Amino acid sequence: MGRLRRGWRWYFFIAPNVLTFLGFTLFSWIFLIYLSFHDWNLLGARQFAGLSNYERMVSDPILRRALVNTLQYAIMFVIPSAAVSLGLATLVNQKMRGMYLFRALYYLPVVTSIAVLAIIWKFILLPRPDGIANYLLQQLGVGPREWLLDIRLALPSITVMQIWSTMGYYMVLWLAGLQGIPEEMYEAARIDGASRGQMFRFVTVPMLKPTTIFITLIAGIGAFQMFGPPYMLTGGGPVHATTTMVYYIWQQAFNRYRMGYASSISLLLFVLILIASLIQRKYMRWSETIF
Amino acid sequence: MTTATSAKQHDSGIRLRAGLRTVLVYLLLLVIAGATVGPFLVMVSASLRPNFSYMTFPISLIPPDPGVDNYIRLFNQTAIGRWIFNSVFVATSVTLLQVTTCSLAGYAFSRGEFPGRDLIFWVFMGTLMVPSTVTIVPLFLILSRLGWVDTYAALIVPAATSIFGTFLLRQFFLTIPRDYDQAALIDGANLLQIYRMVVLPLAKPALATLATLTFLGEWNAFLYPLIVTTKSTMRILTVGLATMVVQEGGAGVQMAGATLTFMPTFLIFLFMQRYVVQGITLSGVKG
């Protein structure tokens, strides 16, 4: 027994994973750092550039714009989508007929590619008074807007679309959290005379803490990498209003062929994601004292 | 007597309120369902309107003069046939490869004892939360140096393994009792035979979960296949759809392409829903 469980044979089993990890993941990281200190437009030779890529980042107004847009988007996306999906989860967590169907219907956008979703939303958000979004809002007495063509509305429009398309995913995560809360806790609260709202506040919310941490973390990491909608819908515009970090990296690398500069922005993106995760963890730990 | 009647009235009052609540809940559920499903109905309906354009108004969910002209144009004017093949080929290959490599590695991490096991495992875990978007530029340059741009190798090989999949399967394999391995060992089975005849058959639900998630992920992938392919013939469906140039009937053709891209994921979700949800839950709360 021990003879088989121990030994070098196991390396064969993990070899594909280890090799692709070394060859693609690890080597990419080393190359990324190396590239950030070089200039390379693919045609000529790589040239050592010292810190010039980093210096350029400091004085690049479009990068600053992309940074602000990404942070703005993350704020507009994470908390509302966590809240909306929690609402959905509590709604479909009731023991009523047909809940499985509703859960499936709410999940539908999650299994759909951003390429498909963007084509649909381009049509919904047409800047015409009789476009679908404008038509529906007109029924509520809101005047027509130009959505993706409006500097102030373009990013919020994309945010709404993204919340709509991902809320089913977070709903499933919340559901798993909700179903992990022992029924006895609600029973005990009911005996103590707690109302529905009080039960939510004093049983559900504290019990969902691990789920809350996880959801805000992955929603945040996802928000920092938003790329598809600006690529498909706005080309980063109007006037850079929807240029996100990843869109800007893509543009610098694959439109302008500035591989070194794109790499240094990629590193900045990584640092941002790292900081955001750490802040988020700290904040969640701090909030523990409130509950 | 009087107390009984008032109790009964009180009772029916509660029942009425509960009934009203039920109606309101279903109403809310339906409105939200309309918001999530409605856009897809608009897409399918628009794709079936022969002369659909972004100027086509008013919009009606049932096309007044349904026809498949947009689909015919789509096949005539774009390389959609090739894109469909590419998507099917890439997603299937990646799925088969990932299920194989991840189950092999998951088996080793759950059963084996070898020098460096824990170190390798924790290095893998450490990179699980680091988004791969960050290294997309150097990865492209590596692939370009290998001469892999516009090849299936670029679309398949870097995705042939997965740390997430390895972790998912390892967790599942840990729940399979070691007694089964022991029994097979006594019967003279070697490591590979135990993997094939004991562990894999018992792990079918976990393998199906990983396969479903991987296939959907590959089918819907966007940024990566956009970057590693430049020729129209090497595009996968999503990227072809996003970059296609159509001479005639653009909007309707786009809607037809979107519908075709959406349908397979819709069908997979319909039939594999349990595995999709299981995968999300496993990766989420227990990861």
What's the short version?
Chain A is mainly alpha-helical and 291 residues long. Chain A has helices at 2-5, 10-35, 52-58, 61-92, 99-107, 114-124, 132-139, 154-179, 183-191, 196-207, 209-223, 228-234, 245-254, 259-287; strands at residues 38-39, 47-48. The model of chain A has no long low-confidence stretch (mean pLDDT 89).
What features would you describe in this structure?
The complex is a heterodimer of chains A (291) and B (287). Chain A has helices spanning 2-5, 10-35, 52-58, 61-92, 99-107, 114-124, 132-139, 154-179, 183-191, 196-207, 209-223, 228-234, 245-254, 259-287; strands at residues 38-39, 47-48. Chain A has 291 residues and is mainly alpha-helical. In chain A, helix 6 packs across helix 12 (228-234), helix 11 runs antiparallel to helix 14 (259-287) and helix 13 (245-254) runs antiparallel to helix 14 (259-287). In chain A, strands 1-2 form a two-stranded antiparallel sheet. By secondary structure, chain B is mostly helical. Chain B has a domain at 78-244: MetI-like fold (Orthogonal Bundle), CATH 1.10.3720. Chain B contains 13 helices and no strands. Chain B has helices at residues 2-47, 69-77, 80-111, 117-128, 136-145, 152-156, 163-174, 178-186, 191-202, 204-220, 223-228, 237-243, 250-286. In chain B, helix 3 packs across helix 12 (237-243). Chain B starts with a helix and ends with a helix. The relative contact order of chain B is 0.13. The model of chain B has no long low-confidence stretch (mean pLDDT 87). At the A-B interface, helix 2, helix 4, helix 5, helix 6 and helix 8 of A face helix 1, helix 3, helix 4, helix 5 and helix 10 of B.
